[in-house]
Design brief:
Chain lengths: 452, 305
């Protein structure tokens, strides 16, 4: 035997050994241990099992036949508070079939459980707040300031319930001047006696359009009177309590206390602590009247009182406002026809410095207003006209008047184009401007009660 | 002196809970007259029912009036269509109502859609598809077959709030469902000529109705739900309607008349004007007569009457 043969033989042996190992390892069906009796017993058992399955199938067939003759609806009542799962269908709960339906439901649910479980994944982001994003951009051309693409704002709004007792929202606004927290507030949702309390930074409940964000205004620019008297939006750091009177007529009362009111109001610095007399206190009452379902008039009066304005030699300031909005909303075509007449009148009483750094203060009473009409001609076109009259807050004899026809075009509910012309008559100057505004919203949006 | 004072006090106390002894009626606000009517059928005089919409509105554009906030402030329950049908007004009104009893997922929040099998549930949520409803088409009240599903949700909802009368609600509900079933046999018979008929609507309001009576929605005048058409879309729709021989254009009464008429005329189809809610026309004074009106008017148009 040479070496090669030795290797060949040992390989063959190894093969046989491996085969033997496999045979031992592989589970072989249990063979009858020679007894025919046992084989018969096993066969009987299989037959019995088969018979049971057949019987079960017959029962199910019968059930299906019964069910297919009837329309769906009906199992047991779901738990009270949570929304019940939509039932796959079943017969009305007549006696005799109820139990079968329950059984069938169990069988079906059992069968599809793996698929249900697969779709019941949890996501770590599930509790993230609703997020919306708004882009507002304007191309402007005025005789005095030439032309510009104004990037107005890119605004992120987020909101969610905090717990059973309160919700929170935030509006973060990016403009060419930087990123600012425009609003970040906590609002209670379950106080008794129709009360809500709001705290943080928010738009104080002064007047009507002061509480609108720029992109929500019915026209391109914020009315001058709100810019000059309120200081843009009525942004305020503070706390506000609102009460809905428990009577048949709508009456809402607000009381607030803030560092100051007005995003661009530079009379007070938000970052400096102050005496109680240096806060701004607000009272507002708002109501609404309906006539014949389709006509309504909303009326509000507001008063913001600052006992001592820090920079103004600690003199008091009082800003009072009256707002009224008439609406015609034909119920059967509210999306296509309508008319709004909105007005705000503001009175400012304040000691103002006669000239820069003179230290000489003089009591000034100034009055300003705007009035606009807007018609809804179709779901897409809303033409309007805005008139403004403002007395200069430092010298009421200097007045500005503005006339602005405009038209808004809505390609859809989430996108808007607006063209506006504004003629300004001011002390010693007049100006003409054209504005083209393009605004869009993506993500979550809400139709809020205030912005109606 | 003391005795008189005591007597006076007893008298005053006796006066105080003037309505505590008498069973207080539940105050139920429904969003639309269909739900108000069905609630009335289920509860009879056991509850006071009112409706926010009058029936002529577009359910997606019901004006948000401050007076509704007051009504909701005092309500024990709100009965709503759900499936986000009332998105444009209800969430804001509920917030303005300050009423913790009727907020979402509380016992007083009665969503009539819980037993409805929704149609047109979007597989993709994207606003390029229009103002779509994430949970499916919410206009299920147009199909009377959903009547019993609405009844069931309302019976359960009211029984949560007034367990003592649960038996009555159930009994009334069953009786009303029997009435609906009887009417359904009639509607099915009447609507036989509608089977297979293709139609175009302004907004996909009639999808449930179509499924019930075997009609086929061919298209909508809106380019996407909630988005008005472009001229190109209208031209394209008319052309396709001609090719497919679409015979009916349904205008829901809260959509513009002229465009629907133009589409119908250009495509050689008949124009039918229908309400999308109970009380949308004077004849539709309750839910059953509303379905009666729609079936009757459509059949008349489809058979050239």
């Amino acid at each position: 035997m040479n070496d090669a043969m030795v290797v060949q033989v040992s390989m063959r042996r190894l093969g046989a050994f491996a085969l033997a190992l496999c045979l031992i390892g592989v589970p072989v069906p249990a063979r009858p241990q020679g007894s025919e009796e046992q084989l018969r017993r096993e066969l009987d058992a299989v037959k019995e099992q088969l018979r049971r399955v057949e019987q079960q199938m017959k029962q199910q067939d019968e059930l299906i036949r019964r069910l297919s003759g009837e329309r769906p609806a009906a199992p047991a009542a779901p738990p009270a508070v949570t929304a019940p799962a939509r039932p796959p269908g079943g017969p009305p709960p007549t006696a005799g079939t109820t139990v079968d339906v329950e059984e069938l439901k169990r069988i079906i649910l059992g069968e599809i459980q793996p698929q249900l479980a697969a779709s019941n994944k949890t996501f770590p982001s599930q509790f993230n707040p609703a997020i919306g994003f708004i882009v507002d951009t304007v191309f402007s051309h005025t005789r005095q300031n030439k032309s510009n693409f104004e990037f107005r704002s890119a605004e992120i709004g987020i909101s969610a319930a905090i717990d059973p007792f309160a919700r929170a929202y935030g509006i973060i606004n990016g403009t060419p001047d930087g990123v600012e927290v425009e609003e970040a507030a906590i609002v209670t949702t379950s106080l008794p006696w129709n009360l809500t309390v709001k705290g943080g930074r928010f738009f104080a409940d002064f007047g009507r359009l002061s509480t609108f964000h720029d992109h929500d205004l019915p026209f391109v620019n914020r009315p001058l009177v709100l810019d000059q008297y309120v200081g843009g939006e009525s942004q305020a750091d503070g706390v506000e309590v609102n009460w809905l009177a428990p009577i048949d007529h709508y009456l809402s009362l607000t009381a607030g206390m803030y560092n100051k009111i007005g995003a661009e109001n530079d009379r007070v610095d938000n970052g400096v602590s102050r005496d109680l007399s240096e806060f701004t206190y607000l009272l507002r009452a708002a109501t609404s009247f309906s006539f014949h379902d389709e006509h309504s008039l909303d009326v509000g009066v507001s008063d913001a009182f600052t006992p001592e304005v820090r920079i103004a030699n600690k003199k008091s300031r009082n800003l009072a406002g009256l707002d009224f909005t008439y609406r015609y909303t034909p119920l059967a075509s509210a999306g296509y026809r309508g008319f709004v007449w909105g007005n705000e009148l503001l009175f400012n009483r304040e000691s103002r410095e006669v000239g820069p750094d003179t230290g000489d203060f003089k009591r000034r009473n100034a009055f300003g207003m705007y009035s606009y009409v807007e018609a809804r001609l179709s779901r897409r076109f809303y033409p309007g006209f805005l008139f403004e009259y403002v007395e200069d807050i430092d010298g009421p004899s200097r007045t500005i008047k503005q006339y602005s026809p405009y038209i808004t075009f809505w390609p859809s509910e989430f996108q808007r184009l607006r063209l506006q012309y504004t003629h300004t008559d001011g002390p010693g100057r007049s100006d003409d401007g054209f504005f083209l505004q393009w605004t869009a919203i993506i993500g979550s949006h809400v139709h809020s009660f205030r912005d109606r | 002196m003391m005795r008189r004072l005591l007597l006076l006090l007893v008298g005053l106390v006796a006066l105080l809970p003037s309505d505590a002894g008498a069973a207080k009626k539940l105050r139920v606000v429904a969003t639309i007259p269909d739900l108000a009517d069905i609630t009335k059928q289920v509860a009879g005089d056991l509850v006071d029912v009112s409706s926010i919409a009058t029936g002529v509105e577009d359910i997606h554009a019901v004006p948000m009036k401050p007076s509704f906030a007051v009504v909701l402030n005092r309500a024990d329950a709100i009965v709503l269509m759900g499936l986000e049908a009332e998105h444009a007004f209800l969430p804001a009104l509920l917030e303005a109502s300050r009423n913790p009893r009727i907020q979402r997922d509380t016992p007083g929040y009665i969503d009539a859609s819980v037993y409805v099998r929704p149609l047109e549930v979007p597989t993709r949520l994207d606003r390029s598809l229009g103002d779509i409803h994430p949970m499916g088409n919410p206009h299920y009240n147009l199909d009377p077959g959903n009547g019993k599903n609405i009844v069931r949700a309302i019976v359960e909802g009211l029984s949560r709030l007034d367990a003592g009368n649960a038996g009555t609600f159930k009994k009334n509900g069953d009786a009303y469902v029997a009435k609906l079933e009887e009417a359904m046999a009639r509607w099915q018979q009447q609507a036989a000529p509608l089977k297979g008929k293709k139609f175009v609507t302004y907004h996909p309001d009639f999808i449930y109705f179509a499924e019930r009576f075997g009609m086929v929605q061919f298209g909508t005048i809106e380019i996407r739900p909630g988005v008005d058409p472009t001229p190109a879309h209208v031209a394209d729709l008319i052309e396709k309607m001609r090719q497919a021989k679409v015979e009916l254009v349904i205008r829901e009464l809260h959509y513009p008349a002229s465009l629907a008429a133009t589409v119908a005329q250009s495509a050689g189809a008949r124009l039918v004007e229908l309400p999308a809610m109970t009380r949308g026309v004077p004849e539709a004074k309750d839910y059953i007569s509303f379905v009666d009106y729609n079936v009757r008017t459509l059949v008349k148009a489809a058979t050239g009457g």
